[in-house]
Amino acid sequence: MIRETIRMPTREGVLAAAESIAAILPPTPLLPVEIGGVRCHAKAETLQPVGAFKIRGGWWRLSNLTTEQRKRGVVAVSSGNHAQGVAWAARRLGIPAAIVMPRNAPKVKLEATEALGAEIVLYERPGEDRDEVAAREVERRGAVLVHAFGDAWVIEGQGSAGIEIAVQLGGEPSRILVCCGGGGLAAGLALACPSSAIVPVEPEGWDMVGQALASREIVRVGTNPPATICDALQPDATKPINLSVLQDRAEPGISVTDEEVRAAQRFAFATLRLVVEPGGAAALAAALAGKVELDERSVVMLTGGNTDAASFAATIAP
Fold first, then answer.
1. Contact call for residues 59 and 87 (beta carbons, < 8 A)
2. Of 63, 147, 159, 296, which residue is the least packed, with the fewest Cβ within 10 Å?
């Protein structure tokens, strides 16, 4: 296998990523919202061209490939949002992309990824190890792996959202509530806004980042994890690169239930007029459930809006 150089993400890298992304994408809105009597803010990453913040990391990673790497192409692993971010960047940059996706990923995400021109490689979830499937594809193609969260450039790209927030807010926020899967966005925001408290929010039973922060070591999900509607927040474990950034920097992790997430989706639709997918509503769910203290400089990340019409309609139905 061709091994790429490992590097750590930096704040300088986040600033460079923010400049690169600002040249191709407008900033997403920072919306005022009242939660529990406190007027704070919501960052609407649901309004990105691919419906999620993942476009940031995908763009920054692919735009930093060498000419030779671009010819070999990329392989990514994703349940849908990172897939679309990488596929969008690959199409714009003319880079071949193959995305390893679970067969049970939401149909809307599978179709959107394919529509962007990426090749989809399906695997069984549960049953197959997605990293092993991706490793085989990387070996076979001689491609570059674009990890969804355990990659320095991806982390820096995601952190560009924090640079936007600081500009829009007129300074760094007091805290940022972050929907958290593997910790790529949380780590990027920690670098972007060094004075802000970073609060990772995960589905119950899938709080691998929260457990890793508490134990100071990587923790893998159990053999029979509970079902969750947050398909975008189901990595088996975080990576050392993410833990190294977040350790001694992030606040203790928070877990939310499916019903709290559904309530957040309904709130976002009724109050902000936004369609938010379950995984993209986790941070808002924690705020609405009173699981974290808020003030007027708190920011809640709304990270994705890729949900199918039928399931969303069922969620918001009275």
1. no
2. 296
Closest to 304 in 3D by CA, of 94, 78, 22, 62: 78
Nearest one of 88, 61, 53 to 232, comparing CA atoms: 53
- Distance separating alpha carbons of residues 58 and 89, to the nearest angstrom: 6
3-state secondary structure of 168: helix
* CA–CA dist 126, 123 (Å, integer): 9
Among all residues, which ones are annotated catalytic? 54, 79
Query: Is 213 in contact with 246 (CB distance < 8 Å)?
Result: yes
Average pLDDT for residues 56-71, to the nearest whole number? 98
Residue 61's CB: how many other CB atoms inside 10 A?
A: 26
Scan for tokens 């920054």, then name that residue.
60
**Which tens digits make up the pLDDT trace of 202-231?**
999 999 999 999 999 999 998 889 999 999
Phi, psi of 183 (to 5 degrees): 105, 10
- Could you tell me how far CA 269 lies from the centroid of its own chain? 20
Burial (Cβ within 10 Å: 0-12, 13-18, ≥19) of residue 175: buried
Distance between CA atoms of 160 and 256, rounded to whole angstroms? 26
> CA-CA distance, 14 to 188, in Å (whole number)?
7
